[in-house]
TrEMBL record:
SUPFAM superfamilies: GroES-like, NAD(P)-binding Rossmann-fold domains. It comes from the Bacteria. Signal peptide: none annotated. This is Alcohol dehydrogenase. The lineage of its organism: Bacteria, Bacillati, Actinomycetota, Actinomycetes, Micrococcales. InterPro entries: ADH-like_N, Chloroplast_QOR, ER, GroES-like_sf, NAD(P)-bd_dom_sf. SMART domains: PKS_ER. CDD domains: MDR1 (cd08267). Pfam families: ADH_N (PF08240), ADH_zinc_N_2 (PF13602). Residues 10-318 form the Enoyl reductase (ER) domain.
């Protein structure tokens, strides 16, 4: 099978296409023919060994000290079941059979940037027929992170004032929609060219991140979600109402360790129930998966380069 591999840490050009054996599903696993996979900021960070401040030593131990331990990156995927492992039949596989369309997140094994991957049947979720593979793969990384922070770390309800910084990114486009659907009054910070998009997703107000409007902004919000890592706890707290909460979706080790009281951070879990909810919302037209680029697997270096710019709008997708 064709797969995108990273043999050494570095620039996007480090990613190349190679021929690898098709994996064999073991007990409780599914072999999935991948139709679409997201190239996320997490993939780019691992490829470049560009870890948040304080995380480099433990990240190197996890992902590989001198070179990536897992050469095939990619977590969020959508595809079709090709084969079922021996102990994953019937109820143990949730009823999955060859030909079923599934989506999911692989977790630390990664491996989605390839024509085939093996995944635990418990991590796979049926993909609704009304949802394309590209939209399914695109919504999972940013959508699950937005869900985690807005629903688990904050209490977003009708009338809540929410500020989303990085509102046009993978996390931000989902956060704006989810907060607006919850009845919140959403303000989105993004580039000038993306203000119309963010407003169309549900933001009542948009702010140009590069203009004086943001530099001079002194508003107060019940929830501030920083999806790009531009706020510190101190600068973020200045944007909060008396009972407001600051959510740092991107934070260094010291910010995470120091997050307490009205400052919250952490890593979103990859829960199948969240995947299922996001897919159901897509199918019902309650959520839109925003896509910046869809490219063949052969162009994955360009996909990584696009992510590295920090200017992608929504998601970058490759099709093996």
């Amino acid at each position: 099978m064709r797969a995108a591999i990273v043999e050494n840490y570095g620039a996007p050009e480090r990613v190349r296409i190679a021929e690898l054996p098709v994996p064999v599903p073991g007990a409780g696993e599914l072999l999935v023919r991948v139709h679409a996979a997201a190239v996320t900021s997490a993939d780019a960070r691992i490829r470049a060994a560009r870890f948040p401040r304080g995380f480099a030593p433990m990240a190197r131990l996890m992902f590989g000290v001198r070179r990536p331990r897992r050469q095939v990156l990619g977590s969020a995927f959508s595809g079709v079941v090709e084969a079922v492992g021996p102990a994953a039949r019937g109820s143990d596989a949730g009823g999955f059979a060859p030909g079923d369309e599934v989506s999911g997140m692989t977790g630390s094994p990664m491996g989605a940037h390839a024509e085939y991957l093996c995944i635990a049947a418990s991590r796979a979720v049926p993909k609704p027929a009304a949802v394309s593979h590209e939209d399914a793969a695109g919504v999972l990384f940013g959508g699950s992170t937005a869900l985690y922070f807005l629903r688990k770390k904050a209490d977003v309800a009708p009338g809540t004032s929410v500020l989303v910084i990085g509102a046009s990114g993978a996390i931000g486009t989902n956060a704006v929609q989810l907060a607006a659907r919850a009845g919140a009054r959403v303000t989105g910070v993004c580039s000038a060219g993306n203000r119309a998009l963010v407003a169309g997703l549900g933001a009542e107000r948009t702010i140009d991140r590069a203009g004086t409007e943001w530099a001079e902004h002194d508003g107060r919000y019940d929830v501030v979600l920083d999806t790009v890592g531009v706020l510190s706890p101190a600068s973020g707290r200045r944007l909060l109402t008396e009972r407001g909460v600051l959510l740092l979706a991107v934070a260094d080790l010291w910010q995470i360790l120091g997050a307490h009281g009205n400052v919250k951070s952490g890593t979103a879990p990859e829960r199948p129930e969240d995947v299922a909810l996001l897919l159901q919302m897509l199918a019902a037209g309650e959520l839109v998966s925003v896509t910046d680029l869809v490219a063949p697997l052969e162009d994955i270096a360009a996909a990584h380069a696009r992510v590295d710019t920090g200017r992608k709008v929504g998601n970058v997708i490759v099709r093996p």
